[in-house]
């Protein structure tokens, strides 16, 4: 019936555009996405719903596995391909995924696209073939922008797992209006950075009966008997990110944002190191992208939807006294070395040494990942219904939890793939126009949290 309608009218019903719609690739009936929107923009037909760019990288290989797993769950065919700069490395990645998942067909049935960040034509060719590019090529400060540009120009939505505020915010500054014109959604930080924190604050707000005005989150990560670590790719992103932190300040001035209004009592900032009664261990302010991503989401929801903004403080558990000593020593070395080119070279060359084994060039083993998990505890406060937040102190509290498997290479692929599936399945629940968005801004009205709950990242009220 649907095929007949399109073939005989030349009109694609979801967008009512008079364009050709190739139903062999358009799964819009079930997946609710109209590939013809993209076709109309780019003049060519996307062959794949997802293209994983950087699928041979450490994280990319786990994203590839997660896509293969989710493609197996889908009722309709999900068409996807693996992309990167080396065909041989992509073949190896597919062989490894085939073995890990017991799906030998991955070796022969998944298409490979060779594309290099340094070759804009190859990126354009890749983007023309995708509804959504899942970009795993980092550090994003070096490799991210050409991918965003190619996606926007060629009509592919783009999501990444960057935890680098400077990259994320400069993409918003430089590509938001162009992406809006093209109807393209660019959603950054869709991994462990920063979906649990950003969606966790929204979940806490939605569960609170009244006006939630402030949330503090406390992150703890645990490892099994095999231990664990983080791959070098994230270490590199952190080293170069901190080296460049001055540029972030000047970048932010270019937005000319007015300060976000403070609703309710102003949240108290904790010290640089303190004992947290909430998680019964020492804690420090969370150094990653989460606070800036959450703030951008709150700004978007406040300015675009007149929602009451929630203040946010993010902290991470360190452990006991011996861990604190290690952190102080490693932190001091890091901040001293990161400011000089020679120091950065040392940090990049010896991640294990300078991080006490927390980062490594090999990354964690599968066994280590199986034993690891994360837990985000959210402590919110606000005003019950009928109470005026401009009068007196908050009179109600809420505690919520977001918890899940190993953060970097299990939770991150789950979050990224579910974010991509959400864009594909729920176009009507995304912001009205395309643009560069945080996860919270893009997915506030979608069922992403339900999807994450079903895939092992659990949101709950305590
Ligand atoms: N949000 C989170 O929580 C989270 C979690 C994990 C990772 N990440 C981020 O993800 C990024 C990747 O980390 P990783 O550990 O997977 O690093 P990685 O193993 O070094 O992967 C980097 C990938 O980039 C590719 N690449 C490099 N230069 C390229 C070019 N010119 N053209 C095309 N591809 C190129 C590499 O290709 P080859 O395979 O051919 O070498 C590789 O696939 C980092 O920015 C990291 O911070 C974020």
Automatic annotation (TrEMBL):
One of its GO terms (cellular component) is mitochondrion. The keyword Signal applies. Residues 1-17 form the signal peptide. SUPFAM superfamilies: NAD(P)-binding Rossmann-fold domains. It comes from the Eukaryota. Residues 51-187 form the Saccharopine dehydrogenase NADP binding domain. Keywords: Signal. One of its GO terms (biological process) is glycolipid biosynthetic process. Pfam families: Sacchrp_dh_NADP (PF03435). Belongs to the saccharopine dehydrogenase family. This is Saccharopine dehydrogenase-like oxidoreductase. It comes from Pygocentrus nattereri.
């Amino acid at each position: 019936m649907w095929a007949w309608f399109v073939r005989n009218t030349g009109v694609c019903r979801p967008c009512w555009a008079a364009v050709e719609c190739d139903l062999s690739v358009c799964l819009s009936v079930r997946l609710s996405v109209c590939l013809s929107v993209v076709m109309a923009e780019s003049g060519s037909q996307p062959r794949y719903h997802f293209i994983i760019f950087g699928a041979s990288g450490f994280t990319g290989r786990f994203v590839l596995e997660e896509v293969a797993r989710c493609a197996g769950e889908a009722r309709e065919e999900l068409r996807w391909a693996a992309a990167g700069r080396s065909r041989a490395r992509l073949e190896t990645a597919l062989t490894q995924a085939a073995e890990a998942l017991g799906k030998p067909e991955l070796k022969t049935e998944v298409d490979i696209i060779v594309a290099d960040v340094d070759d804009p034509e190859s990126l354009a060719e890749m983007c023309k073939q995708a509804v959504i590019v899942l970009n795993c090529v980092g550090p994003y400060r070096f490799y991210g922008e050409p991918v965003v540009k190619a996606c926007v120009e060629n009509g592919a939505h783009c999501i990444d797992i960057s935890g680098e505020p400077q990259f994320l915010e400069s993409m918003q500054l430089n590509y938001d209006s162009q992406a809006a014109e093209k109807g393209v959604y660019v959603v950054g930080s869709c991994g462990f950075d920063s979906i649990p924190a950003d969606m966790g604050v929204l979940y806490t707000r939605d569960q609170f009966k009244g006006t939630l005005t402030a949330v503090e989150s406390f992150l703890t990560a645990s490892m099994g008997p095999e231990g664990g670590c983080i791959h070098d790719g994230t270490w590199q992103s952190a080293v170069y990110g901190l080296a460049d932190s001055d540029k972030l300040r000047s970048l932010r001035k270019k937005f000319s944002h007015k300060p976000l209004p403070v609703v309710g009592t102003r949240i108290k900032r904790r010290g640089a190191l303190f004992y947290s009664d909430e998680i019964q261990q020492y804690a420090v302010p969370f150094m990653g992208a989460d606070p800036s991503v959450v703030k951008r989401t709150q700004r978007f929801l406040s300015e675009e939807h007149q929602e009451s903004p929630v203040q946010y403080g993010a902290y991470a558990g360190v452990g006991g006294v011996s861990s604190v000593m290690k952190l102080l020593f490693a932190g001091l070395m890091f901040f001293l070395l990161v400011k000089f080119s020679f120091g950065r070279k040392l940090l990049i060359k010896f991640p294990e040494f300078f991080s006490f084994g927390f980062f490594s060039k090999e990354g964690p083993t599968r066994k280590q990942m199986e034993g690891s998990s994360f837990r985000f505890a959210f402590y919110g406060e606000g005003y019950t219904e009928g109470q005026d937040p401009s009068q007196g102190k908050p009179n109600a509290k809420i505690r919520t939890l977001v918890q899940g498997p190993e953060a970097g290479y299990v939770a991150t692929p789950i979050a990224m793939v579910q974010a991509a599936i959400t864009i594909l399945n729920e176009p009507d629940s995304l912001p009205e126009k395309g643009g560069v968005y945080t996860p919270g801004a893009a997915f506030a009205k979608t069922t992403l949290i339900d999807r994450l709950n079903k895939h092992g990242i659990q949101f709950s009220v305590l």
